[in-house]
Design a protein that fits this description.
alpha+beta
Length: 147
């Protein structure tokens, strides 16, 4: 079975740790521990080497499934990793990273940059800063606005 964010060079797990979401750096092989840290599910259930492997329909269906999960589990905030995935899955072509100013299932939505090593726009310190902004907004009780 594959693991999410496991490709060499993917900065998801280091960004989570540097942002303070986890008390140690988790390995992609420990992805099942994410729930223990209050971190949720995936937009699309199958791991891929690249986000480009996901079809528009897979992303849209993933968005519908995730919306149902949000209604059932009522998380503090829905954070989606990957701006293009979010835009496609939720029909928001003008979305940017950060708080979205809208809700899904009554929960605030926040979009984080894609941590793939293929995403040259963000190096690890910048990714960690985006993830940290989300954590700090959650801790302050206002995840709908930028800190």
């Amino acid at each position: 079975m594959g693991h999410h964010f496991a490709r060499p060079g993917n900065r998801f797990w280091p960004a989570l740790h540097l942002a303070g979401f986890t008390d140690r750096l988790l390995s992609p092989l420990e992805d099942e521990l994410a729930l223990r840290y209050g971190l949720g599910t995936n937009l699309v259930a199958r791991p891929t080497a690249s986000a480009q492997e996901l079809s528009r329909e897979e992303l849209r269906e993933g968005g519908r499934v995730l919306a149902g999960k949000v209604l059932r589990s009522v998380p503090g905030v829905l954070a989606v990793v990957g701006i293009d995935a979010y835009r496609t899955a939720f029909g928001q072509p003008r979305a940017t990273t950060g708080p979205q100013g809208q809700q899904l299932g009554g929960r605030p939505v926040w979009v984080l940059p894609n941590p793939s090593g293929l995403n040259a726009h963000y190096q690890l310190p910048a990714l960690a800063a985006h993830f940290r902004q989300l954590r700090e907004a959650i801790e302050s009780g206002s995840p709908c606005s930028s800190p």
